[in-house]
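Weekly structure sync, notes
Attendees: PL, DS, HV (note-taker this week)

Item 1: Thioesterase
DS walked through the input record. Source organism listed as Streptomyces luteolifulvus. Sequence as pasted into the shared doc:
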Amino acid sequence: MTVGTGEWIRRFHPAPGAAAQLVCFAHAGGAASYFFPVSRALSPAVDVLAVQYPGRQERRREAPFEDAELLADAVAGQLADVTDRPLALFGHSLGATIAFEVALRLEAAGITPLTLFVSGRTAPSRHRTQWVHLGDDEQLLAEIVRMEGTDPAMLRDPELVRMILPAFRSDYKAAETYRHRPGTQLRCPVLALTGDTDPQVTVAEAEAWREHTTGPFDLRVFPGGHFYLNRHAKDVVALIRRRMTAPAENGTRP
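Item 1 (cont.): predicted structure, written out as C-alpha cells:
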C-alpha cells in the first residue's frame, strides 16, 4: 500500500503514532520504492517518507532534474507539509548530496533535522571530477553495471533500458556538476556510512563529512562496495532505528 503526500513523497507504511519521521533520498537512477523494505522494517517506530524524483516509475513522463540544488529546492518546498514531527534525512550516493542540500534549506527555515545520514558519497568538499553523463549509452550502461546497484535482468531488456537511461543520465549530471558552496555548514548531527571497497568513495572522503557540520559527527564503515547497504540492510536499519528512537544519543556510539 502506498499513501502519498503529493507527487513528491511516498509513504508506504504510515506510522501516525511515530515520534519522528525519516525522509529518504535515492541514488542516481533510483526511485522511492528502493526504500520500501526500510519503511517496512522501521514502521511503526519511525514514519518513513521516500522522495520520488521526477523521471521514474509513475513520474517517468516528467523531465528529470539535472541540477542538484534545483532538485533540493523543490524537495525542501514539498517537505513544508510534513514537518509536524521531528525528522531525519537519509540519502545514498546522489541522494546524500540532495539530503545535505535539503538539510541546509530546512535549517535556514528554522527546522533542525535530528540527524543527517549520508551514505556512499564523498563529502561535498572532496569533489571528484567525473563526466559519465557525457558518455554514450554503452558507456553509461557500463558504469551502471560497475556500481552493481541495478538488477542485471533490467539491463538485458532493451525497452526497460530505453526507459531508465534518461533518468540515470540526468542524475549523473546532477551529481557530477554539483559544487559545494564554501562556508555552508549544518548544525545537526551527521552520520556518514560507507563501504570499505567503494570505488566512488574512500574512507577518508567519507570522514570529511565531519567538516560540514558544527554538530556531532560519526562514521561507520561496512564491508562492501558502493551498494554495501544491500548486503548490510539489517545492520543499517538497526543503526537508523537506534538513532531515530533515541535522538538524545545522537553523536555518541549506541
